[in-house]
Amino acid sequence: MIFVTVGSQKIPFDRLIRQIDKMVQSGEIQEEVFAQIGASEYTPSSFLYQRYLSAGEYSQKIQECDLLITHSGVATIMEGKRHHKRVIVVPRLSRYGEHVDDHQIQIADSFSELGLVMKCSNIEELGTVICQCRETPVKDYHSHREEAVGLLREYLRERKEQKNERL
Amino acid sequence: MKLGFISSSGGHWEELMCLKELAEEYDAFYVTEAGGQSEMLSLEHLYVVPQINRKERHFLIHFIRLWLESKRIIEAENPDVIITTGALMAFPFCMIAKAKRKNVIYIESFARVTDSSLTGRLVYPFADLFLVQWESMLKVYPKAIYCGSLF
């Protein structure tokens, strides 16, 4: 199953949903597709979709899929990586009114340079990217959370000591 | 010491939730936007404000309402420190907390690898601690501290 997701913002991302619909209708995509279409104005006709999913449903779809095609949302990408999925990232672009600016390109670029995801900037090339993605072994992401949490924990401890000294 | 964990929905919230273990070590409250998945979590002490987007039609009126709500929440909770991962929804909270001489910790989004977010640029001049998750962002925010990824 291919899980396609556009995120929970109020801004549509029709470009991705339309392309997937076109590819399923033409037979270029043959397997089952499920999409979370969010605020999309375009409604697909050739596969099942829902506008929004609960956290549990979302996680389940990511775990069930064998390919995750997502807008360049950090949360979704990271969840896909946690579950060792093949991930294709399609950045939302401000020139199409898909986001307030082009920051989604940054994580798409960095993560694809690190070999963690494949990036699709030109939606017409999505078919080619899907084929390439399927042939590429999945590279795992290694978490650095402990260092960040440790830094904050130390900072807060110092603030607490300062507060206690003042009292 | 009381902490306020504040962020908009989606990825910003997921990043903030990477700090949940810290929240559990202190007296903490949370503020986020509607529309994400956060309200599905059984977090105690969670405030949910309407989602905002600076390019939407009635942005100004929504933003004004957000300022009023931020003031109400900060006054009701009286945190010592607020910790936020953005985005714009967090800005009034940062300003109001700073005006009340509270500590403001801003963590620039993991999605920002080479350039700054609007909210980051707005908060950077007055944040007590400004963290970036990519070393490349130290060129953008020279006074920031690189903490690595929250994920």
Could you please describe the fold and organization of this structure?
The complex is a heterodimer of chains A (167) and B (151). Chain A is α/β, with parallel strands linked by helices and 167 residues long. Chain A has helices at residues 14-26, 55-64, 74-82, 104-113, 126-135, 145-166; strands spanning 2-5, 33-36, 48-50, 67-71, 86-90, 118-119. In chain A, strands 3-2-1-4-5-6 form a six-stranded parallel beta sheet, with helices on both faces. The longest helix of chain A has 22 residues, at 145-166. In chain A, 38% of the residues are buried. The mean pLDDT of chain A is 94. Chain B has 151 residues and is α/β, with parallel strands linked by helices. Chain B is 30% helix and 21% strand. Chain B is built from five helices and seven strands; from the N terminus they run βααββαβαβαββ. Chain B has helices at residues 11-17, 20-23, 59-77, 91-99, 118-123, and strands spanning 2-6, 27-33, 46-49, 81-84, 103-107, 129-132, 145-146. In chain B, strands 3-2-1-4-5-6-7 form a seven-stranded parallel beta sheet, with helices on one face. In chain B, α5 links the parallel β5 and β6 (129-132). Chain B is globular. Chain B starts with a strand and ends in a 5-residue tail after the last strand. Chains A and B meet through α2, α3, α4 and α6 of A and α1 of B.
Keywords, separated by commas or semicolons:
heterodimer; A: 167 residues; alpha/beta; six-stranded parallel sheet; 44% helix; B: 151 residues; seven-stranded parallel sheet; 5 helices
Helix/strand/pairing category of chain A? alpha/beta
Regions of chain A with pLDDT < 50 over 5+ consecutive residues? none
Task: Tell me the distance between the termini of chain A.
Answer: 59 Å
Percent of residues in helices of chain A: 40-55%
| Strand ordering within the main sheet of chain A | 3-2-1-4-5-6
How many strands in all of chain B? 7
The chain pair forming the largest interface, with residue counts per chain, is: A-B, 38 and 48 residues
The rounded Rg of chain B comes to: 14 Å
Mean pLDDT of chain B: 91
- Tally of extended strands of chain A? 6
Major sheet details of chain B: 7 strands, parallel
